[in-house]
Amino acid sequence: MKVGFLFAGQGSQYVGMGQDFYQKMKLARHVYNSIHLDFDLKRVCFQGPEEALNDTAYTQCAILATSLAIAACVSDLGIQPDYVAGLSLGEYSALTYAGALSLDDSLTVVRQRGLIMAEALKGKNSRMMAVLDKDIETIQAVCDSVSQGEDFCVIANYNSPNQVVLSATQPALEKARELLKKHGIRRMIPLSVAGAFHSPLMIPASEKLADVLKDVPLQPCRIPVIFNVTGQIETTEIKELLIRQIKSSVRFAQSIQTMLDKGVDTFIEIGPGHALSKFVKATDKNVKIFSINTFEDFLALKKEWKHE
Predict the structure, then answer these.
(1) Which of 26, 77, 173, 239 could form a disulfide linkage to 168, CB 3.0–4.6 angstroms apart?
(2) What are phi and psi of 168, to 5 degrees?
(3) Are 269 and 147 within 8 A, CB to CB?
(4) Domain 3-121+201-305 is in which class?
(5) Is 291 one of the annotated active-site residues of the chain?
(6) CATH: 3.40.50.10310, 3.30.70.250, 3.40.30.10, 3.10.50.40. Which one for 126-195?
(7) Residue 43: which of 30, 32, 55 has the closest Cα?
């Protein structure tokens, strides 16, 4: 058996996430209680309000903390991954779990990353939209055709073989939607996010993130990490990969495939939501998948793992 951990990204958050782990697991309480930021993270996670939790400036630290609290509990079952990866923000959870970043440094970087990204989107009329279809070539051609002048439309996420996410200015996204319909592509879902992440709007943010990362110490990863920018295991130039990630396409489908190619047959999604499990299922229906989002999920994993 080979195990891959997948860490949740932004958009999976919900008010109350992690609270059941905090109440019932000492390890989870230790993670949350060891965090000291310029806002009450536990309150935002457990009580909201939703507007605060969905604010990019706060969301990223909240998801990171919740994911690592859950990961600590999963590890306590004796489960250790052979590989780790995370969706966008989740890459910081993966790097922290793998020992490349300390929890304090990771939270410091992610707090600044959230603020930087929120600032980059201010005054910009931009959106993101999931497109469910296998015809990636047509989707890319449509993106290219509607990108003119200051308007752009790019593939921000390759989530699975049949799902990508577009980042675009609002006018370009509307044109893309109509063209995709003409090509017979009907399944399109607007995303409730602050704006066009992983797009040209994030170029100034990437430059500011480079300054944030400049003096942050990194240690060698004790577990192989598969990175969003390449979809491959990387061991060098990690800071450069993180700088590129904020403005580049997230190759999560490729990351899953890399794990499969390495022999991973059991995936454990860690953190709020269960979107990543769906991406794995869309890639390979024969592997075992656990999504650890609630304490009940954890208990189910604990019960099944005893029989492995």
Answers:
(1) 173
(2) -160, 160
(3) no
(4) alpha beta
(5) no
(6) 3.30.70.250
(7) 32
pLDDT of residue 236: 86
- The 8-class DSSP code of residue 151 comes to B
Q: Which two tokens stand for residue 31?
A: 């993670």
DSSP secondary structure, 194-263, as one string: SS--SSGGGHHHHHHHHHHHTT------SS-BB-TTTSSB--S-HHHHHHHHTTS-EEHHHHHHHHHHTT
> So what's the pLDDT on residue 307?
59
Backbone torsions φ then ψ of 11, nearest 5 degrees: 110, -15
Which member of 12, 67, 88, 249 is catalytic? 88
- Res 306: pLDDT: 73
- Report pLDDT for 30: 97
Dump the DSSP string for 73-119: HHHTTT---SEEEESTTHHHHHHHHTTSS-HHHHHHHHHHHHHHHHH
According to CATH, where is 3.30.70.250 located in the chain?
126-195
**CATH 3.40.366.10-classified regions of the chain:** 3-121+201-305
Is residue 88 annotated as part of the catalytic site, yes or no? yes
Catalytic residue among 67, 198, 249, 255: 198
0.85 exceeded by pTM: yes
In contact, 147 and 153? CB cutoff 8 Å: yes
**What are the residue ranges in the chain where pLDDT is below 70?**
307-308
Tokens of 255: 């990351």
